[in-house]
Design goal:
With 391 residues, the protein is an alpha/beta fold. The protein contains twelve helices and ten strands.
């Protein structure tokens, strides 16, 4: 693993979640690739151009660790199984027909997963494939996000059993693939790896339009994530995070109305080293700070857990000032041990490759706003460290 001290540059560690808005021309190329009017070579050229810009502008924010913005991915959830969000290049054990929604957002739109038809389940792509390209394009440490086994578990039909391929065997294969995804990222040079767990908060919300959310799956989701994390040493797990948020797509969310107390006490039972927790867009921040402070563990199977709280709201085009970021972190330190405190963004800025960003007016404007927000996250985190006497 790359040696990286998250506190070196800012006192309080700060880290992105992962994705950044894709330029309009890249989104058009994705759509053109699905339609057969854009070649693979043309799409890849625009992806590389967009990644380089993300890395250059990310480094210019002063952030101690950055991401490539997931510009080469279909989405945070489907990169292992398909080439594009529309399903071009879907693996042959899955069908684009008959899958279930994994999320229905507040504005009424939904995102659907494909349906598993037979086994065995294997990834088509691993995160390392894009990470290796990006590592050679920057000297700033890179983090890598991967999808949780609990999200991929939703590929299996909720009520039906697949002949000759049990749910138990499928989930065992999913955990094997997730472990491989994480290990390969570290071996390639990722400084940190975080697991996207957006389904965690949603699992506590019973939505009749979305049957899996009322199935009481949160304990099983935690079990699946711990199955994977149990394969790593405490030293390794200190560099593996869990990200939770109420979703983020087209500037809308899927579970912001779900009380955090329904999730957080259980979530900290996951034996990860750190947690990236949406908080900037939360109304009652103090209550959430208190819940985090009461439940974060000093010893999670050999690792002291860290809470990276969200101080930036990617769904809102208003740029938070560095002073706001600082004030939020200082207030959080009233409830969370300052040695276990970090900062992050609420969510990836654009988890899906096609994302119109209606609140912003355009994805290009949203992209500019994102880097302004990240710059202030870094500055505000440094200011908070000084106020709290952390060096």
């Amino acid at each position: 693993m790359t040696e990286y001290d998250p506190k070196t540059a800012t006192g309080i560690p700060t880290e992105p979640v992962g994705s950044l808005p894709r330029p309009a021309k890249l989104q058009e190329a994705y759509a053109g690739y699905d339609a057969g009017t854009t070649s693979k070579e043309e799409l890849e050229a625009l992806q590389e151009e967009s990644v380089q810009e993300c890395l250059d502008r990310g480094a210019a924010t002063g952030a101690p660790i950055i991401s490539d913005g997931e510009q080469r991915w279909s989405s945070f959830a489907t990169y292992p199984i398909t080439d594009t969000l529309a399903g071009t290049g879907l693996v042959d054990t899955l069908s684009g027909e008959g899958g279930q929604f994994f999320a229905i957002f507040a504005d009424g739109h939904g995102r659907q997963l494909p349906r598993l038809t037979h086994g065995p389940f294997k990834y088509k792509h691993y995160a390392v494939e894009t990470l290796q390209k990006s590592l050679g394009m920057t000297s700033t440490p890179l983090k890598q996000a991967v999808i949780a086994p609990s999200m991929l578990a939703l590929l299996y039909p909720l009520k039906d059993e697949i002949s000759d391929y049990s749910r138990e065997q499928f989930e065992a294969d999913v955990c094997d693939e997730t472990e491989k995804d994480i290990r390969q990222a570290f071996e390639a040079g990722a400084a940190r790896v975080s697991i996207d767990f957006t389904e965690g908060r949603l699992a506590t919300r019973a939505d009749p339009r979305n049957p899996w959310t009322g199935a009481g799956l949160l304990p099983h989701f935690i079990e699946l994530n711990n199955n994977v994390l149990g394969r790593f040493s405490a030293e390794e797990r200190a560099k593996i995070g869990i990200h939770t948020c109420p979703g983020g797509d087209r500037d809308s969310v899927h579970s912001a109305d779900v009380p955090y107390n329904d999730l957080l006490p259980s979530m900290f039972k996951i034996n990860a080293g750190y947690f990236l927790i949406q908080l900037a867009s939360e109304r009652d921040k103090a209550t959430v700070h208190k819940t985090i402070g009461e439940n974060i563990r000093g010893d999670a199977d050999g690792v002291t857990q860290m809470a990276y709280i969200g101080v930036i709201n990617p769904g809102n085009p208003r740029v938070e000032s560095a002073e706001e970021v600082c004030d939020h972190l200082v207030a959080a330190a009233n409830h969370i041990d300052k040695q276990q405190l970090g900062s992050t963004d609420d969510c990836g800025f654009s988890p899906f490759s096609i994302d119109e960003k209606p609140n912003h007016g355009s994805p290009d404007y949203a992209r500019d706003v994102a880097f302004q927000k990240i710059t202030n996250r870094v500055k505000g985190t440094q200011m908070a460290a000084e106020k709290l006497g952390i060096s």
